[in-house]
């Protein structure tokens, strides 16, 4: 019995990548497609809709949503009310909206997932880094991205650092009388440890967390080359939400 | 209130390293030393014994044991019977002996630890690798050691591979029509994945587990340079066993 | 004064990538395009030809050739006879053909380049690895590719190994009494050192050469993600051949 | 015929490590030892001197010097005047002193070496990095050291950066509108590229130079664990100076 999936926002980059992923997995069945910008009536025999209202009562199990922040909350509410377990990659939810949607999912006894990040590898890296920091409080983060990236450090590095801060025993690292003969050499300071941002052509998105202790070292590295990598997280989300009876926020809750 | 520790086997390499570690931690107090080969009466004011019987009724909390396989079982039993929570790095226990000691510890309501490996970093690596293999079933292990090492792959690599096999969905990796033009290039096969052993002067003991998936990669690496690295595991063991009321086998049970 | 370039084989993957590269470099000017399969009369104002004879007497400096082995020799001879310095990525030349073309180029006082590999990074890696092996005879090669690759080790790894063999003092590495408890763990043997081939989804083409000596290590790594990387080698070739008066075989001769 | 070597400063750390290295190489013969702090008359049958004057006319080929800056110039001059080819690791020479000693060596037709750094691996890394920067002008340096190190970046990183600056086409790297949301994230700026300094317990002395270009990357890494690694440079120096007729400054001149 395959899982029947609706994809909302299927004309966008993430949405169309999700369609390909679903078509390539025999455990999943593409049931319907939704996009206000669609002009075709069907794709490979799958019906296309431009207004979500038409999907009320439709036979499907999961609602995958890669739409726009402006409509994501209404879409997710619609999915839950119509019995579709939502798997949402669209951003822009407020905390109170998330709390409301979790309540609604519990009433409806439907699983669901809202995730700002579907990269399983990146999420595992953060989880492992946080756990290791309990035993190895001396660490540094090196994140490496292409040289068109404007901000440093990366959002992922800051998120990783925050997760580490929650569990690591606070500690100011480095020699007490440390001196930078070239300003910035020691990187950005965050809760007593350091973050370094490398920017080079040819790179995509990479992150290393290096731990050091007397006589040993531990290095965790994630390399992200292509948005296709997010699809293993979407796939996992679809297969997990149908087994659950409440929506969760963050893919890490399903790992 | 510091934890009072007896060190059995304090004349050996691991035992003497443990003594140094305990003396350097203000939360721990070296209470007594035991070694049949000792000739001194005391070390830095700490009494030295050559026969464990003399320690019956002694005031201490933890019994650290780095002795010989021939006496480890008797020592651990003695520790439990005398109210000392054992932290044992000596090897050579049978499965039935471990089961017996766990029973005895439960009767005495004493924590304890028997650990074949005290390297926290190596244990975390194995745990992380096993968890990642659930989501990334394509992986290879590269272990790197000094060039005097006789056996390949390393015991740690085989142990890591076994832990992965327990949780990874079985899969034969690589191209179906793969051909080695030089025999051995693809490494050793284990449950469908590959293990590679590098041997070079200058290296000590290192292990990488590399995971690959569409559009991303995850690499976990542990570097071990010195036996001093085991001491953070011994330290953790001492501080954990005094909070518990049953002996466990394997440091991973305390992480 | 920009360098005027003809691209032969411009309808192929490498040829069309070369066209893009030339159009993006203000020091170069696309002068003419040649391909027997072309149907258009011009591309962006650049004249298109289907027969090389029509280019006799044409005003250009360099002939870039990404055609087929069957015509590469004739094309290169034609280029030299007509005063175009050839930069040839097509394969299939015999040693005597190369010798002949070098002679002809010397008579014509024209530079030229025939290169089986235009990846500057890969060529630098080989050159550095060979030089390092003179001082660090203990080394291992790890090459990593996507899991659709059939042959192991890679052609680049074998080429690297051959260049090392030419200069490294012969030595059988590893412990004398080394034992593989899992066959293949120590990799493929080549001239006393080892080559390991990793195959994983998500990887493209990567190579590491690791050197070890008492108290130190040296690691050289090249990562190749995309054929666009070959273009820096083609660009370098174009700019170097116009300064020279004899054809060379191998991009390394121009570095 | 083995090379007869005098070691000046044999009571110091480097000097005594050099003595061990010479005794372990059958191509070398320890001829005499010099140290003003020595009290023994001989070591393993090798005569010990406390005043260099006593070595005038002594039968030896090479003078290895690991003494103090205050005496290094006089020692090297003495060696040359007495027919010993000097291999000097002591620092503190002025440029004019070096020029003088090179002149003197040429008159005496003696080889010689004054080297601030005997780590062949570190020197090869610098040489390779400089060469690669000609073709890959986008690069960053990451140096990693133990957390007792006071200064950042390391002297080796600055030296490497200077060598790169000499040959690399000047270029300001990174996005034009790059913003640090945490100050220092992008590291120290040097001639348009960046240097990052990592400090962690367990590390010794490590350096990576990472190059990026469209579709590819090149990474060069040196790991230094122990001062014993300098000895391969001293050994090479001894064997090379006896073949030469002029002193050089810098081990790279002999590679």
TrEMBL record, chains A, B, C, D:
Positions that bind NAD(+): 9-14, 35, 89-91, 115-118
Keyword terms of this UniProt record: Amino-acid biosynthesis, Cytoplasm, Diaminopimelate biosynthesis, Lysine biosynthesis, NAD, NADP, Oxidoreductase
Cell compartment(s), UniProt: Cytoplasm
One GO cellular component, as annotated: cytosol
Active site: 145 (proton donor/acceptor), 149 (proton donor)
HAMAP family reported for this sequence: DapB
Family, as annotated: Belongs to the DapB family.
Protein name listed in UniProt: 4-hydroxy-tetrahydrodipicolinate reductase
Species whose genome carries this gene: Streptococcus henryi
Source lineage: Bacteria, Bacillati, Bacillota, Bacilli, Lactobacillales
Gene: dapB
């Amino acid at each position: 019995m395959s899982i029947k999936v609706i994809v909302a926002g299927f004309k966008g980059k993430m949405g169309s990548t999700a369609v390909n992923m679903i078509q390539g997995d025999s455990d999943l069945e593409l049931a319907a497609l939704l996009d206000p910008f669609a002009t075709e009536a069907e794709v490979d025999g799958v019906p296309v809709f431009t207004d979500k209202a038409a999907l009320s009562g439709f036979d499907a199990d999961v609602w995958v949503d890669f739409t726009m922040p402006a409509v994501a909350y209404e879409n997710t509410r619609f999915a839950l009310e119509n019995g579709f377990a939502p798997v949402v990659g669209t951003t822009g939810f407020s905390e109170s909206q998330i709390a409301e949607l979790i309540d609604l999912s519990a009433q409806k006894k439907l699983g669901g997932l809202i995730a700002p990040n579907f990269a399983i590898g990146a999420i595992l890296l953060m989880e492992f880094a946080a756990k290791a920091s309990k035993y190895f409080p001396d660490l540094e983060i090196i994140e490496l991205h292409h040289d068109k990236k404007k901000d440093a450090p990366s959002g992922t590095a800051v998120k990783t650092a925050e997760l580490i801060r929650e569990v690591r025993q606070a500690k100011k690292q480095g020699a007490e009388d440390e001196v930078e003969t070239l300003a910035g050499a020691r990187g950005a300071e965050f809760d007593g440890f350091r973050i370094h941002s490398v920017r080079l052509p040819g790179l995509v998105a990479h992150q290393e967390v290096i731990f050091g202790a007397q006589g040993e070292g531990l290095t965790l590295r994630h390399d992200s080359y292509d948005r296709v990598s997010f699809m293993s997280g979407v796939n996992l989300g679809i297969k997990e939400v149908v087994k659950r009876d409440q929506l969760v926020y963050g893919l890490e809750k399903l790992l």
